[in-house]
Amino acid sequence: MHPITRRGFGKGLSLGAGGLLLSPLVSRLESEAAGLSQGQPRFVFLVEGNGLWPHHIQPEGIPLHRDRIDGKGQPTNAAPELEDISLSAGNHELPPSLQPLRKYRDRLTVIQGLSGRVCGGGHSNEYGGLGCYPRNGGPRAETIDSAISQSIPAIFRHLALGISRDMRSDIIYDCSAAGPNQKTPIYTNPALAYDMLFGKVLRGNPQGEALTQKHLLNFMVDDVKRLESHFAGPEREKLQQYWRAFESIAQRQSRLGDVDPKQIDPMTNLYQSAVESDRLDAHFQTVAMAFATGMTNVATLASGVGQHHFEITFKGLGINANKHHIGHLQVDGANEMAIKIRQFHTQLIARLMDQLAAIPEGEGAMLDNTLIVYLSENAGAHHSSCYEWPVVMLGNLGGRLAAGDRYLCFPQYGKPGHRTMANLYTTFLHAVGDQRERFGMKDPGLEGVLNQDGPLAELLA
């Protein structure tokens, strides 16, 4: 990937049809170049299906407090009080699953003890995992990745890529949503995703196409308004969704002419591979280029996520058992297989961090302003009860978060000081300027017991 200098981005920039749309972005970049603001925040959500087991991310030398909350179910977090531990001060080594991230230990934060009982649990919480609402019935509201993208817009407001056991579908829907019943398409075909992002820049005249689409958009405005008066309820909502989608495409097109094609690496054989690990590898490469070119500031990578997709088999890693059987510990060496799969994911994270560290931005690098969140949409187990939801974070968003070289474990469910995934997601929103006090739905089991509003004070800088 070619180096990109953000400093001076606005100098000599000729804005065409997308001038009005680009002006806020250019102003922010010019302020950053002048040292007047923090760099552009970026988020990556790496969502691994089938649960992220707490002991797989637990730093060595720090005990996991375990108990059965209801006296019968699976053991879960039982920390009596908040634990806040420096990894380096205690000389705590990372567990095997996180070893590929060892060079970035100063940017790494392990979070244990958060809950998400409102989601329900089972084999997959699907949209509820990133949305903090019950898993049944499809998306009830926006998910956190989509919510964040509204505060840090780019050409593509949100990029969602993933892998599935189903090779027949190029696009799936499983964990991300822009709003109620507005499922975010997740591209599982790396070549299709690459072409969707970079094809027009590499092939043709995106600004010319933008002018055509702008004229078409102007003609459509009156027609859409007239049609709205003839519809009510669900039909009118569908019409409005269609209009918003077309408008978004047209706006996106108007900004593609300012993307430098020299920053886009050519497609490799990975993008055409039928091997699941190759496809995920290619998706990570695409995210790196999308960040470098300014195509997006928020990316979601869904690795075998959702009720219909989690039974994926990582044959490319030499594993012949699917993740369902691994989750049930039904095969010999299941724990070791799960660790190997986690290591593959963290290797890809480490490589992405290397790539972002090589791209100058402001007084530092693009990595300085990026937060990578590694978690599962199904909390901490194959059959999840959502009493605990392990999370690994890399980065601090340019100092917006008090994160890095840190282990945080929140108290047991229902005890004073306990917090939820909704509080973590609210923290992310506050870090990008969205000051809402609540994200998602409240946990009925904690009503009247704990205050569920607000961000995690422990993580806000």
From TrEMBL:
PROSITE patterns: TAT. InterPro entries: DUF1552, TAT_signal. This is DUF1552 domain-containing protein. Pfam families: HXXSHH.
